[in-house]
Design a protein that fits this description.
The complex is a heterodimer. By secondary structure, chain A is mostly helical. Chain A has eleven helices and two strands. By secondary structure, chain B is an all-alpha fold. Chain B has a single domain, classed as ABC transporter involved in vitamin B12 uptake, BtuC, CATH 1.10.3470. The chains are: A mainly alpha, B mainly alpha. Chain A: The chain crosses the membrane at residues 15-37, 44-62, 68-92, 104-124, 144-165, 194-215, 270-290.
């Protein structure tokens, strides 16, 4: 009996730590989405599809052209950042004055475009990078090195964004616009430029997430659907546009998925997370740390 | 068009539609027509809510419940779809109320509402996939062939019967649309979509009105899912449930025209014909192309033609309203600021 309990505890601890590691990447995704929502007041339904494109970019650069992972990663981040800026310029900018629902649905159209573009261009095969990172053994627990690396890189990415937002003029302007978009234009800030920069940063964060996710998961055209919805839920749970709320919610969700997956299938972890989300909407409709409007 | 002329036109069109399968028997074309009618019904169900600004991405979930509950009851308990379909509709309706009530009570609107309903269709998809011992998971699910009465099992082999059933269901959808369009609920919901506080101040029970339309819409969507399942005899989580199906509904309704009765039907005709043409023209090479075209069209439509094809067309055909006199203009402005 005692032995069974010991093993159980080890697995529990492993699941908890794996949850934290997963939470890092989810928090990174949520940060990008929150940034765009907070500043431009638009939800990119196709956010996870940008990540998918980034994952394909990584795959082709590393597998096909034999570029080193560490050179390919910045290129991917740059590529997805450009994609984000393009998305804003082509789709969101003409709709800035339209009802918010229309903006959201237009990005839904982009979701279709990106998904089917990937299907047409790359086929529906599952592809992976073929990099097998060693497994880290710590006591009786095993952690994948890829997850640890992703967690650290995600943290670095988030700290970089934080410093950018607080230490530079552009970052300050971005934060100011998210507080009052009308007044900032009167203060001599070019809102169009700020929107474009914000979209590029949001895209860049998606690109970074892509570089990290491609280490752990196979890429296929519909990979976005497996973590896209969860990202939106995290943002809503944390309060759309609330960075700290999103950060906390990411870890809460990751733990639920990880622990739920420990006791049963991974899908049940997701079901549990979704159900938790709906229950939380009863209790805290405006997010975990409701922001006063 | 006058009221009588319009009624006559509807009558003639319906008679022609009902007579079609007896004159024209090409099974492939009838199959396409049945699909168009069933999906039109589903899109119409979505647009019941969508036209009032209640954009739901959870309808894939309702449709999945309609299809899977009916099929599961038939296969595991031997319950006829005649009982199974109402049960599945009740299940979808109950889910709609459970999710809808807190949403409306706590004033979750706009982005939040879309994302909460997105979670709903995500849950349904994951539950179907996770219970793969019963539902077959992502591999799909087939209702057992009936050994006894075909009528009892609601399984027919000939396309003509299905065509008539689908036509009836579609007509029912249009009838409900008009019923809502003529009711007081429509004015209440339009007021809510413009300004919730003002509507509440004017004596509209915001939560109750929204719940009513959500319930109607969810029931109809579940029915569409069940009919689709009975017709195709094969369902997978991806074809009847999930976010892709929800987005497909939104897309078709917007392209056709969200604010007119036949808009979603026009949307269904366009999307299904487009998919079929691409499939026949390019074969397996065209996998993904239809969605690519959908996506581009959806973006273009929202930017340039937000009223949809039929909506914009009807606007063109309608005579220009007379210019209101000065005092009337003022009254209009007070009634609807910002338009």
């Amino acid at each position: 009996m005692q032995a069974v309990l010991d093993i159980f505890d080890i697995y529990l601890l492993e699941a908890v730590i794996n949850g934290i590691l997963l939470g890092g990447v989810l928090a990174l995704l949520a940060l990008g989405l929150n940034l765009i929502f907070g500043v431009i007041d638009v939800t990119w339904i196709c956010y996870a599809e940008l990540v998918m494109i980034g994952m394909y970019a990584m795959y082709f650069m590393v597998q096909y052209y034999g570029i080193s992972y560490f050179i390919a990663a910045p290129l991917t981040i740059l590529l997805v950042a450009i994609l984000g800026a393009l998305l804003h310029y082509l789709v969101i900018a003409p709709l800035l004055t339209a009802p918010p629902i229309n903006q959201l649905l237009a990005t839904g159209g982009v979701l279709f475009v990106l998904q089917s573009f990937a299907t047409v261009a790359f086929g529906i095969d599952f592809r992976n990078l073929g990099i097998r990172l060693p497994v880290l053994a710590f006591g009786d627990m095993n952690f994948s090195y890829a997850r640890l690396l992703s967690f650290l890189a995600a943290l670095v990415g988030m700290v970089a964004v934080y410093l950018f937002m607080t230490r530079t003029f552009t970052g300050t302007a971005i934060r100011a616009i998210s507080q009052d978009r009308q007044i900032m234009a009167l203060m001599g800030v070019d809102t169009k430029r700020i929107y474009l920069i914000t979209s590029a940063i949001g895209g860049g964060l998606a690109g970074l997430a892509a570089c990290l996710l491609v280490l752990q998961y196979d890429v296929h055209p519909f990979v976005g659907l497996s973590f896209g919805p969860i990202t939106f839920l995290i943002c809503v749970l944390g309060g759309l546009g609330n960075f700290i709320g999103g950060f906390i919610a990411a870890f809460v969700f990751a733990e639920i998925i990880s622990l739920g997956g420990l006791f049963s299938d991974l899908e049940w972890g997701y079901v549990l997370a979704f159900a938790f989300f709906i229950v939380m909407m009863f209790i805290r409709p405006a997010g975990l740390l409701a922001r006063r409007r | 068009m006058t009221g009588q002329g319009r009624l006559l036109a509807w009558g003639i069109a319906l008679a022609a539609l009902a007579a079609l399968p007896f004159v024209y028997r090409d099974p492939y074309h009838l199959h396409i027509l049945v699909l168009i009618l069933i999906w039109s019904f589903a899109y119409t169900s979505w647009s019941m809510m969508g036209r009032f600004g209640l954009v739901s991405l959870g309808h894939g979930g309702f449709m999945g419940i309609g299809a899977y509950v009916t099929a599961l009851l038939w296969n595991h308990l031997g319950l006829s779809p005649w009982i199974g379909i109402p049960v599945s509709m009740v299940a979808a309706g109950a889910l709609a109320l459970i999710v809808g009530y807190p949403c409306f009570r706590f004033r979750i609107t706009g982005h939040y509402f879309v994302l909460v309903t997105l979670a709903l269709s995500g849950i349904v998809l994951q539950v179907i996939t996770a219970t793969r011992d019963y539902t077959g998971g992502s591999l799909g699910y087939t209702p057992n062939r009936a050994s006894g009465s075909k009528l009892l099992a609601l399984q027919f082999d000939d396309k003509t019967t299905w065509y008539l059933i689908a036509l009836g269901v579609w007509l029912f959808g249009i009838a409900v649309w008009y019923w809502v369009d003529r009711s007081m609920a429509r004015y209440a919901l339009e007021a809510i979509s413009e300004d919730e506080d003002a509507a509440a101040a004017a004596g509209v029970n915001v939560t109750a009105e929204k719940l009513k339309i959500t319930l109607i819409s969810a029931l109809m969507t579940a029915l569409a899912g069940a009919i689709y399942c009975q017709y195709q005899m094969f369902i997978t989580p991806d074809t009847v449930s999930g976010i892709a199906v929800s987005l497909q509904m939104v897309f078709a309704a917007i392209v056709g025209g969200l604010f007119v009765s036949l808009g979603p039907t026009v949307g269904a005709i366009i999307t299904i014909l487009l998919a079929e043409t691409l499939r026949i023209g390019f074969g397996t090479k065209a996998v993904g192309w239809d969605n690519l075209v959908y996506g581009v069209l959806l973006v273009l439509f929202i930017i340039f033609l937000p009223k949809g094809i039929l909506g914009s067309l009807l606007d063109r055909l309608k005579p220009q309203p007379k210019v209101p006199r000065a005092h009337e203009q003022k009254a209009v402005q007070i009634a609807r600021p910002g338009t």
